[in-house]
């Protein structure tokens, strides 16, 4: 892959060098990622496409620190250089919560809580609002502001079961954006949506990318949506090909 900074992009925010991931099973070792060199730049919208089982989701999980590489290096440049290898479990969790948002194919909303509660729940569980002197009402106010931007203010007190599939996924996007992360990783975010709703959600992601400068790395099988990203990369047998 060409690792030179595109002239129309800003600073590097994620760099991987010779990234590998191998799973060891009773049947033998399975090498999923086979030495990936990759750079994401601030403000990019990157689509990663490829057949099922080639390692797209594994790569996303490793980049998102949800999984660890078997070898190689990841360097984050959000606020100085950060190598997650040296972080404790708690420090890694705090880093992830502050700098990385996630949107998956399944929204993973908590059914027993309403929309606004789903947005602020990670903050409440981690007691971060106390460390930053934010009250429960201030968290809710911040949540309402995000919901307004996503056209969901009127749904704040509805429960997930009362929402359409597209609305549920927009709530998942709102949750990912709650901490204003510089990087959002999305794994088949439109996979469970009809084509019209998928296009609407993708337009929403593009607007967020344009307005906030949020970097998106999007794993998708939808080639027409991938073509609209600023960069399209294909994964073939554990290797990224641009």
Tell me about the largest β-sheet: 6 strands, mixed
Total count of strands: 9
CATH domain class name: Alpha Beta
Q: State the domain count.
A: 1
Q: What letter string, H or E per element, gives the SSE order?
A: EEEHEHEHHHHEHEHEE
- Cα shape: globular
Mean pLDDT: 86
CATH architectural designation: 3-Layer(aba) Sandwich
In which order are the strands of the major sheet placed?
5-6-7-3-8-9
Which ranges are low-confidence, i.e. pLDDT below 50, for 5 or more consecutive residues? 1-7
CATH superfamily (homologous) name? P-loop containing nucleotide triphosphate hydrolases
- Compute the number of helices: 8
Rounded radius of gyration (Å): 18 Å
Query: What portion of the residues fall into strands of 2 or more residues?
Result: 25-35%
* Terminal CA distance: 6 Å
Helix content: 25-40%
CATH topology label: Rossmann fold
Q: Which structural category fits the helices and strands?
A: alpha/beta
Keywords:
242 residues, alpha/beta, Rossmann fold, six-stranded mixed sheet, 8 helices, 35% helix
Explain what the structure shows.
With 242 residues, the protein is of the alpha/beta class. The chain has a single domain, classed as 3-Layer(aba) Sandwich (Rossmann fold). Helices cover 35% and strands 26% of the residues. It contains 8 helices and 9 strands. The chain has helices at 56-63, 89-99, 115-126, 128-131, 136-149, 165-177, 195-212, 223-226, and strands spanning 12-25, 28-41, 45-49, 71-76, 100-103, 183-187, 215-219, 231-236, 239-241. The strands form 2 sheets. The protein has a 6-stranded mixed beta sheet. It has a 3-stranded antiparallel beta sheet with strand order 2-1-4, covered by helices on one side. A hairpin with a 2-residue loop joins strand 8 and strand 9 (239-241). Helix 3 (115-126) packs across helix 5. The longest helix has 18 residues, at 195-212. The radius of gyration is 18 Å and the shape is globular. It starts with 11 loop residues before the first strand and ends with a strand. The model is unreliable at 1-7 (pLDDT under 50).
């Amino acid at each position: 892959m060409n690792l030179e900074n595109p002239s129309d992009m800003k600073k590097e925010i994620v760099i991987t060098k010779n990234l590998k991931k191998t799973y060891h099973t009773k049947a033998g070792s399975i090498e999923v990622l086979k030495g990936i060199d990759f750079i994401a730049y601030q403000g990019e919208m990157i689509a990663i496409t490829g057949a099922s089982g080639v390692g797209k989701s594994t790569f996303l999980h490793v980049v998102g620190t949800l999984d660890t590489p078997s070898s190689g290096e990841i360097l984050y440049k959000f606020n100085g250089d950060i190598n997650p290898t040296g972080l404790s479990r708690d420090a890694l969790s705090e880093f992830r919560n502050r700098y990385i948002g996630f949107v998956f194919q399944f929204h993973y909303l908590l059914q027993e809580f309403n929309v606004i509660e789903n947005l602020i729940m990670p903050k409440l569980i981690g007691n971060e609002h106390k460390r930053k002197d934010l009250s429960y009402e201030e968290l809710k106010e911040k949540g309402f502001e995000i919901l307004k931007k996503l056209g969901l203010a009127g749904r704040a007190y509805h429960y997930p079961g009362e929402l359409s599939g597209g609305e549920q996924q927009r709530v998942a996007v709102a949750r990912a954006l709650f901490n204003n992360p510089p990087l959002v990783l999305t794994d088949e975010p439109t996979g469970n949506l009809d084509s019209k709703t998928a296009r609407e959600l993708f337009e929403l992601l593009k607007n967020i990318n344009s307005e906030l400068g949020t970097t998106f790395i999007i794993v998708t099988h939808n080639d027409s949506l991938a073509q609209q990203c600023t960069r399209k990369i294909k994964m073939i047998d554990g290797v990224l090909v641009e």
